[in-house]
Amino acid sequence: MKIFIAILIAAPLVLAGCVGITREGERQARHDVRAVGEVYRPKGERPVLPKLTNDSGFDDFMRHAMLNQPQVEAAYFDWAASVERITVERSLPDPRLTFQADIADIIMSLMPGLMMDFPGPGKLGARAQVASEESRGKYFQFESAVLQAAFALKKSFYQLYFLDEKIRVNQQTLDLLADLEKLARSQNEVGKVTLQDVLRAQVEQDRLRTETVNLDDSRHSLMAQFKAALGLTSDQPDPPVPAKFASTPVVSDEQLWTAALARNPELKAMAAEVRRAEALLRLAHKERVPDFNLGLEADALAAPTMFRPQFGMTLPIWRDKIAAEIAGAQAENRAAKARLTAAQISLAVEFAEKSFMFREASRNLDLLQKQLLPKTRLSLEVARSGYLSGQIDFFNVIDTERTLLNFTLAEIEARTQRELTLAELSLVIAGLPPVNAPVLNQTPVKSTNQTKKEKKP
Fold first, then answer.
1. I need a surface site. Which of 44, 172, 364, 391 has the fewest CB within 10 A?
2. What pTM was estimated for this model as a whole?
3. Facing residues of 297 across strands?
4. pLDDT tens, 300-352?
């Protein structure tokens, strides 16, 4: 009897060291977390971030942003937590240690026991599948956060870089206006023109100086965006800005669209949501199946020892409740499929819009660089020569100078739009990860330039 009581007392301690049976979805999810964690959070700690200098490659800045961005970190641990929930959902309920006694004037019986609940067949598997698909969706939310962090860095860097280009162009134009002012003064001194030409040159310079000051002042807000993209807080010093420009590789529309359908993380997350809804529907149907419990009690005072096995089961008699659970799961499944279809339609529209913007910016850039800017520079030289010979008034010279400035700034805007659109197409829409991104299944897509080179004999 003492041995039996000791067994009953020791049973929960022994069972506490048990582990459940892992399922395929759980094993894959844990493998994925380990694979990403080796890069993103090795040994659970933040990896050593690259030291950033003006001479650092843009890949170092990109890696710093992806590994240091708080939104990415939050998405990663949300995903890791969802993986742990798979184990919780597929595990059996904890056993229960019971104790029962019959007492009159004395203790008539003393019955320790052990009880175990068993969900109906297939319920644990369905719950594990729901948790697995939820975890898969959380992974794609993490991947989306990585790509958004990379795009935010590129966007802020491009805006900073092209802001400096605008300031440089304004400074060159100010030098040009200073030369035109000297030219007008020399013409005024010999009586060929009035002082009005000198004043026009000065007015133009004053206007452009103010625009340059405004541009320089806007650098502070752009630097704040660049700093935030690197995951740096306000009390940390401003980071350096890469000295070398890093353009996004050009990929054909066909390759980008194929990649978008295969890799877009938002679509992937919604597809996982559809599978989760389908698993919930299967689980709802299994609510018709009863749950069971088994147990064993023993009367420690009886001689010989009396054992009392116990068996119980739930009776799923509330058909309206079961029907409501199934109907709710069906509605959720249809809603998830509708959201996926809506996202696919929205992705197609967004891809078409961004592709057009990229082609438009490329055409405008080609027109400005090959046609308008060379002709306008030549026109300005002709206008200056005509002004010196008295054939053209100063107003035409200033107007040509403004046209050149506007075309030069338009060229910078076209370059900016082209790079921003290409980066968004590649990272956000197509879901193509940067080099060394902490994501799964990095499949590089060849750029258009690489494809052309390989086709050459």
1. 44
2. 0.86
3. 113, 308
4. 777 787 888 989 999 999 999 999 999 999 999 999 999 999 999 999 999 99
